[in-house]
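quick one, two chains, predict together pls
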Amino acid sequence: MDLFIAIFTGTVIAATPLIFAALGELVVEKSGVLNLGIEGMMLMGAALAFWAVTAGYPMPVAILAGALAGAAASLLFGVLALTFLTNQYAAGLALAIFGSGVSAFLGRGFGSEPIEALRRLDIPVLSDLPLIGPLLFRFDPMVYLALLMFVAISWFLYRTKAGLVLRTIGESPQTSHAIGYPVIRIRYMAVLFGGLMAGLAGAYLSVAYTPLWVENMTAGKGWIALALVVFATWRPLRILLGAWLFGGMTILQLQGQALGLDVPSELLSALPYLATIIVLVLISRNRQMLALHFPASLAKPFRPTS
Amino acid sequence: MRFRIEQRPEPSSLMRVAAPALATLLTVIVGSIFFASLGHDPLATLHAFFIEPLSSMNGLSEWLLKASPLILIACGLAVGFRANVWNIGAEGQFTMGAIAASGVGLFWPNPESVLLLPLMFIAGMGAGMAWAAIPAFLRARMNTNEILVTLMMTYIATLFLSYLVHGPWRDPAGFNYPQTALLPTAALFESFDPAYRLNPSIFITVVAVLLMWLFTDRSFLGYKMSVSGAAPLAARYAGFRESAAVWIGLLAGGAAAGIAGMAEAAGPLGQLSPQISPGYGFAAIIVAFVGRLNAFGIVLGGLLMSLLFLGGEGVQMTLGLPSALTRIFQGILLFFLLAADFFIFYRVRLVRPVRDTHALETAR
């Protein structure tokens, strides 16, 4: 039973950064913009949040700093992709490389000492309940924030007028512009929001998940988050399920190593990447389902003609 | 006074040439500000970064030595990029090429065979192509996004390398370092001059540049690739299948990266260790763009990018600045280049307020 609890809670925690980053990217892609720079934004968020903790700022401030670092990085991408109509693939890749460089530069003074991790909420009565307590009520606040963001974003995209406008812009910016919606401005806001979420994801990694700084500590989680959006065929609930699936993969791999399975640790470490490929293959084969939810103007530059 | 952005009737050929120069200049300016904010004399730092590496014979040798794999890989990647095939896993294909070539070099029954280098070349190229064939197959047959697959394959290749050098291929006499034994002499490119590291493998890159130029600018197939990138629908009507572009694009990138991996293993490295690439596979993506996906542009882009690597190492040693500066500079350069490209297709016009024109007319 303890092993089950460990796997369950481990999965939820490992999924949290993926949920933040993938939900943020979902909003960006729903507006018709493809930002491949998640890895870079996450690293910037991770570095800044870690720095803020070591500099003695309280935890919420540190996490906010991480989120803002992600947003600032995404603004660089936004200016290129939205104002300068750059190829979005190239701009996103540039951001990924730049972010890894800047975070490594910021992180050079961090040393290798761990910090005190973000503490979990111990809600008085609830967390002491047998079974349910450890399963549901002993996480840190960011885990709950990720779930809250899932609810908020699902509601925003499918239940509000602003969400409808955002999705329309992702389908046909020309039409939206003709009706009078400020396409570029809304896309900027989506890109900034995506950066904020990627920054949160990075902050979670460095102050809660593994509370220490390692260069390139995201280890491809930003790219896995991108894959999750495709895997989820641009739907929030499937992002949540997908993130848990990948979180579970990560935890099984760690448990496998801890149990001393007789396979090379590198093989276990490769599992999440292999799983990403396999899942992408399974999803991508169904072209109809992809086409149904794919934002039609994704990665196409838009410039108002009047 | 107000600015207005308008589309040029025709892309500006002047800006096409000026944009990379402008981007480089802006990168240097931002770099100076950055150095100054770190408390270093910007001029001295820039000198250490960009001039010093080129002021000695050894520096020039290192410059070409580092530019060579970048140019080689970028040539292969650009073939795909032209057709909108986004292979961003060259780092993994490079790693697999280095592994396969080293494997041949270490385990070939006759370590003095003159066939060793050619065999390693074939093994490196084959491994790079095989590693790229997986995303090509998945994209062509299963519609799977090649960006994500090539990237995931890079992480897997890195883990595979780590497994080999920590496990079965580890040199028992290597003082427990995770590295293989040194390759036999016959498996190494001999330097032009024993004092420097530059070796004949740069000729491979020269040939690759010529091949790339012939393919993209002089062959019908290359032309069809470019059309399929610029106008996929038109290409499909003309009977050029998208899957052909996917296969050619990815295999060209994989072959080039695999050969570059082989040339590194058989050249300056001489053995496998976990750090076989300072990020050549990723930097080559920037080189391809800086070179505008054009063979000779890529040569210039590669020379510029390798200077950034060299300068980064230089200031790390002389001024104690972190090596991450290299990646920051690379990112900034690409940012500026992408932004400068805007002015090829658009221009900024100063729009005078109406009042002024009225005043002008009455004065006349």
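The longest strand of chain B covers residues 2-7.
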